[in-house]
């Protein structure tokens, strides 16, 4: 690899989608590292937090070290019910061990509920602490269209920037 290429920052992308849990097996909603009381929860092997998962995948993607499935596969019983914050902190550790520092992570999720604005600062603080770098979160409703509009699930997309240490 050329010297210039070795010092260039690298970007990554992550996308995660979780369906709502069925009414027969209700779950709490974890989104953006926060518990949302009274909101319908998402299905998943872990806590099903698509914001934290998309952020972790963007970090793996930027560092070129695989993805969520590579590091926290659903075949790993120790990750059953794992918090998205724990997975994001672990992802940041793996990326740093691979020789990178984290510039920032930006996440946007698509959901009609919950209303995110009032808790944005709290969510960003929790996620940034886990990543050890600034994590910003935005939200959009998709105007009632698509699977989110139909109330089927929540998606999140993230980008990350890392640079060699
Ligand atoms: N779950 C959500 C979704 C959106 N917001 C905020 O509302 C703004 C307008 O939403 P659009 O879908 O019309 O883009 C958006 O920019 C967010 O500030 C929210 O807080 N929670
Ligand atoms: C996080 C993991 C592992 O517990 O499980 P899920 O909570 O199902 O999440 P998903 O984003 O579908 O896949 C990644 C898995 O590795």
Automatic annotation (TrEMBL):
InterPro entries: MECDP_synthase (IPR003526), MECDP_synthase_CS (IPR020555), MECDP_synthase_sf (IPR036571). Binds 1 divalent metal cation per subunit. CDD domains: MECDP_synthase. Pathway: Isoprenoid biosynthesis; isopentenyl diphosphate biosynthesis via DXP pathway; isopentenyl diphosphate from 1-deoxy-D-xylulose 5-phosphate: step 4/6. The keyword Lyase applies. Pfam families: YgbB. Keywords: Isoprene biosynthesis, Lyase, Metal-binding. One of its GO terms (biological process) is isopentenyl diphosphate biosynthetic process, methylerythritol 4-phosphate pathway. The record marks 45, 141 as: Transition state stabilizer. NCBIfam families: ispF. 4-CDP-2-C-methyl-D-erythritol 2-phosphate binds at residues 16-18, 45-46, 67-69, 140-143, 147, 150. Its cofactor is a divalent metal cation. Belongs to the IspF family. Its EC number is 4.6.1.12. This is 2-C-methyl-D-erythritol 2,4-cyclodiphosphate synthase. It comes from Pseudarthrobacter psychrotolerans. The gene is ispF. Involved in the biosynthesis of isopentenyl diphosphate (IPP) and dimethylallyl diphosphate (DMAPP), two major building blocks of isoprenoid compounds. Catalyzes the conversion of 4-diphosphocytidyl-2-C-methyl-D-erythritol 2-phosphate (CDP-ME2P) to 2-C-methyl-D-erythritol 2,4-cyclodiphosphate (ME-CPP) with a corresponding release of cytidine 5-monophosphate (CMP).
């Amino acid at each position: 690899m050329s010297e210039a290429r070795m010092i260039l920052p690298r970007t990554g992308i992550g996308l995660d989608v979780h369906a709502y849990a069925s009414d027969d097996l209700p779950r709490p909603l974890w989104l953006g590292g926060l518990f949302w009381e009274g909101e319908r929860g998402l299905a998943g092997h872990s806590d099903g937090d698509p914001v934290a998962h998309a952020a972790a995948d963007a970090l793996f993607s930027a560092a070129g070290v695989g993805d969520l499935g590579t590091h926290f596969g659903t075949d790993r019983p120790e990750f059953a019910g794992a918090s998205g914050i724990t997975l994001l902190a672990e992802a940041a550790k793996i990326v740093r061990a691979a020789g990178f520092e984290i510039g920032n992570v930006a996440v946007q999720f698509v959901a009609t509920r919950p209303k995110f604005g009032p808790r944005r600062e709290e969510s960003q603080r929790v996620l940034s602490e886990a990543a050890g770098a600034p994590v910003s979160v935005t939200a959009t409703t998709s105007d009632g269209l698509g699977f989110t509009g139909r109330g089927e699930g929540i998606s999140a997309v993230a980008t990350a920037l890392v640079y060699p240490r």
